[in-house]
Amino acid sequence: MPATELKRDEILLLFDVDGTLTFPRSVVEPEFEEFFYSKVKPRATVGIVGGSDLEKMFEQLNGKRILNEFDFIFPENGLVQIEKGKEVGKQNIIKHLGEPTLQRFINFVLRYLSELDVPIKRGTFIEFRNGMMNVCPIGRQCTREERNMFAAYDIEHKVREKMIAKLKEEFANIDLQYSIGGQISFDVFPHGWDKTYSLRHIEANYKFREIHFFGDKTEPGGNDYEIYTDRRTIGHKVSTPNDTKRILTELLGL
After folding, report:
1. What is the number of other CB atoms lying within 10 angstroms of the CB of residue 181?
2. What whole-number distance in Å separates Cα of residue 54 and Cα of residue 51?
3. What is the pLDDT of residues 131-144, one digit of tens each?
4. Quick one: which residues bind Mg(2+) 2 (predicted)?
5. What are the extents of the domains in the chain?
6. Among 57, 101, 224, 227, whose CB has the most other CB atoms within 10 angstroms?
């Protein structure tokens, strides 16, 4: 059945944030926000599933308004589950892996980064979240200009890709997988704790006829790849919010 003929509670639209609802590390544009809430939300159940924590979602999507506007919010790949503004579930990587494994991993990462030659280094190289660790070779306390500079450098020198290869080799016997997202970092989490984790919660509690996912990092190794290619979703690759708006307009007949 065409999406235009489905009722609101029969179709779920899930969205990445960076590069999908906003430009990378930018705030949602008022024009897009108005289009989304006035045109899209009345036609479909809507949710966001991002690699970042809830506070970063607030920063990019105009604050706590999203708690009222989105039916589902899945920070940290869905390891935190929020429905209608209330947290209903949470998973924890520390309990899953245990302190000895975590310390071994952190020590290796810090040692690797101490010997890594990159144009700049700032601060906060490892960030803990409930369901993952985020590793940033230049440090998350960088300016937008420094972020953009490293993104271009990384395309040429494959800094993150090479580091992930080394980690896979060193921790081959540990339940971990790696996913590049955004411009400057990559996520580390147990197998299966990618964005498809959000689908576990949805399937256990709801019966949608169609689930659509919109994301930009859909290539293998990108943090949208698993959910974009999952048999339970209809994937839409985008590069900017303009792509997202265009596809939504066609999909919903707006």
Report:
1. 25
2. 9
3. 889 999 999 999 98
4. 230
5. 3-91+194-252, 93-189
6. 224
